[in-house]
Design brief:
12 helices, mainly alpha, transmembrane, coiled coil, disordered N terminus, membrane
Length: 292
């Protein structure tokens, strides 16, 4: 009978690849959506950097977009690039490569929902370590230290992915997701498996970008607007002229006071001479001059 305890336990078990072919094929057709989400977020940040650089002008200039993209990768986007370069490849490998020949394997829809929903938890070490280490170990550091930071964050990403696989498959999280999805229609199972990965990617990329913005204090000429740069140059030129004027006035004052300074020096020298002290009566007490 439906709803009995054996049926509930049976829902925990995967249906195998033969019972998943239709929904898995639909999921494979819509996998590109997650890349579209990532591309739109990256394009938004690059355009923001471009507008800061050009003050709203020539936003579609290819060279400016490339410069802004390089700046994004080197600064606020470094954590995002490291995470998705490692994690995205491993996600797709776990879903579409490993376990395809396993008759007891979960449907790819279950894998997608399980892995990506669990990723919201397992990627948090990347965020916390990025906030803690990026400013001290990456920003304004040498290329060697930056490479060590990138390697360390890549290792953390790989370790978090292994932990995610362990939680999903060994600790029964995939079975729990499978139970929930089995109670839904085919259309809703496909919709969830298609919608969850782009949603999670959007949340992760936004948090990683915010982490980079929090930690990054690099000074780049591309971020300085031309109007601001011209204003700073004008102020520096004004200060330079004022310093030259003060220097000239100082020289004039010295030249004007040279006679007075020489007079004071001459007077001081005379007062220190023995003849001056004798004329002023500067002799020891009890001393009397004897006459012949």
């Amino acid at each position: 009978m439906p709803g009995t305890a054996p049926d509930a336990w049976a829902a925990l078990l995967p249906r195998g690849p033969q019972g998943c072919s239709q929904e898995d094929a639909a999921l494979a057709r819509w996998t590109f959506l997650r890349y579209c989400v990532l591309g739109l977020i990256l394009l938004w940040r690059v355009c923001r950097l471009r507008r800061k650089a050009e003050d709203g002008e020539a936003q579609c200039c290819l060279k400016g977009i490339l410069d802004a993209s390089c700046l994004f990768v080197r600064t606020e986007g470094v954590g995002l690039v490291i995470y998705f370069s490692v994690s995205a490849v491993m996600d797709n490998a776990a879903i579409f490569v490993f376990g395809r020949g396993d008759e007891a394997g979960f449907c790819e829809t279950v894998k997608a929902v399980s892995l990506y929903s669990m990723a919201l938890v397992t990627f948090l070490p990347n965020v916390l370590l990025g906030i803690r280490l990026q400013e001290t170990c990456y920003d304004k550091r040498s290329c060697g230290v930056k490479c060590v930071f990138i390697l360390f964050m890549a290792i953390i990403t790989a370790v978090s992915f292994v932990v995610r696989l362990w939680l999903v498959y060994n600790e029964g999280y995939a079975s729990l997701v499978n139970l929930r999805l089995e109670s839904l229609s085919l259309r809703w199972r496909v919709a969830l498996s298609v919608g969850v990965p782009p949603l999670v990617d959007g949340i992760q990329s936004t948090m990683l970008i915010l982490t980079g913005q929090h930690s990054c204090h690099l000074t780049c000429p591309l971020l300085i607007k031309p109007s601001v740069a011209q204003h700073l140059l004008a102020e520096m030129e004004t200060i330079k002229k004022q310093m030259m004027t003060l220097e000239k006035q100082n020289k004039q004052l010295i030249e004007m006071n040279e006679p007075l300074i020489e007079k004071l020096n001459t007077r001081t020298t005379k007062e220190k001479s023995p003849d001056a002290r004798k004329s002023a009566g500067c002799f020891p007490t009890g001393f009397t001059m004897s006459t012949g």
